[in-house]
Amino acid sequence: MDAQIFDAVGVGAGPFNLSVAALLHPLKDVRHLFLEKQSQFCWHAGMLLDNTTVQNSFLKDLVSFADPTSAFSFLAFLHQHKRLYQYVNAGFQRTTRREFNQYLQWAARSLPAVQWGQEVRKVKPHACGFEVFTDTGAYIARNLIVGTGPRPSVPVMAMPLLGEQVFHSSDYLFKRQALAGCRVAVIGGGQSGAEIVLDLLGQSVPPSEIVWVSSRTHLAPLDESHFANELYTPAYVEYF
Are 48 and 101 in contact (CB under 8 A)? Predict the structure, then answer.
């Protein structure tokens, strides 16, 4: 069977490629497909802690800054789920991480161009652009959009020890229950390390001891100033 030809094929369907898929959705003359190895979307599943919030404004969703009229905005999500008035009346300064994950899952389910459970095994050059191979077929892409996301950073010496007792912060919620009453070391003085230490201290049965190790000389606060956020604006990118 001949491979299908697409104007764009995306490898991965995390937030970045979901954004592209949402913006391409109304463009009927652009044939596109996104392939994701996971069976369903979940954003930072191991770190969806209680009371944690997204640091950015809810307007920095998948689409609003590029297309404020998109049907895949966070406001559209709230409206469809009849939560818009409640959200506004609550006066939240930040959106909770859990609610933003619900929004991303809603968008992921609503985009027919995203295929789940399709792991890309190989990509090779093709006369039309690229040929993309999965276990179930091959696709020709005039343009390739790679959005495979970051990999957990684990020190080389810890790699052989990974398991139930040594794990990356991205697996924290899946392992938390087993930490009750144990001696626990948290390695890393960034935001994830701080959130884990705070969460452990708030458990009904906390660890018997927590050792927090960091290469930093001090704990640095998040830089959320207006000047810092200016770094991510199109005008700043164009200037530099």
Answer: yes
